[in-house]
């Protein structure tokens, strides 16, 4: 598969900081993967994301070594304008990237800044709004919407730019369980239909691990664990680095040790309940 992101020996230290925010970090992500990034607050996740979307080194200065390549091109040598067409970023709070007086104008905002021709802009906006299922909201004011609807509007604006890589920064932190589940299902849909690659920073892993190809754990600026979600969450190290292992996985892990349920895949709560009932018969 084609590699969309390569982080090669990356280290970064902010001015006047006593330690590196990211240290000797390596990561390769092929197109079409969903990669979950976890770790305690202050471990360097936000800094890492800034190096991928170009805020570091273009907006934040500091001691920078190593390299980050998106679609084979170094972030250091790319303009923010060029990066915006390959890397989309969805903030934790969607209100941070909703500016306009209607949903339709908001989705078009990034395209207007790039000077995309009006006919092409109309096509992309309509496609993004339709894909996110928010056509009925097109003329609504964003401030009237629910958090879940705002999240979809912000994501539509990102997708209208047609990036190959989308970064989601704790996208479920403001959402109720039902809306969070819908967002994760939407990410899977976009991966399947568009081939979009996703890097998702999230503490609530219970919904995400079902779809993620890999789980990467950071601590003190370093990558300390990398593997499939099952490998990482069934291992002994994840919790020691502050990763919140989903309750259903903890129960499955205990029952799997006794041979009551399988351990070759992560199970959802309904799957685990069915397996337990079967074992008790």
Explain what the structure shows.
The model has no long low-confidence stretch (mean pLDDT 90). The radius of gyration is 20 Å and the shape is globular. A 6-stranded mixed β-sheet has the order 6-7-8-3-9-10, sandwiched between helices. A 4-stranded antiparallel β-sheet has the order 2-1-4-5, covered by helices on one side. It has helices at 45-53, 55-58, 80-84, 103-114, 118-131, 147-159, 177-194, 205-208, 229-234, 247-257, 269-280; strands spanning 3-13, 22-30, 34-38, 63-70, 73-74, 87-90, 165-169, 197-201, 214-219, 222-227. It is built from 11 helices and 10 strands. By secondary structure, it is α/β, with parallel strands linked by helices. Helix content is 38%, strand content 22%.
Brief characterization of the structure:
With 281 residues, the chain is α/β, with parallel strands linked by helices.
Main beta sheet: strand number and arrangement?
6 strands, mixed
Order of helices and strands: EEEHHEEHEHHHEHEHEEHHH
Q: Which word captures the global form?
A: globular
Q: How many helices?
A: 11
As laid out across the biggest beta sheet, the strand order is 6-7-8-3-9-10
**Helical residue percent band:** 25-40%
Give the structural class: alpha/beta
Distance between the termini: 45 Å
Parts with pLDDT < 50 across at least 5 consecutive residues: none
Mean pLDDT: 90
Number of strands: 10
The radius of gyration is: 20 Å
Query: What would you call the quaternary organization?
Result: single chain
What is the percentage of strand-forming residues? Answer: 15-25%
What key phrases describe this protein's structure?
single chain, 281 residues, alpha/beta, 6-stranded mixed sheet, 11 helices
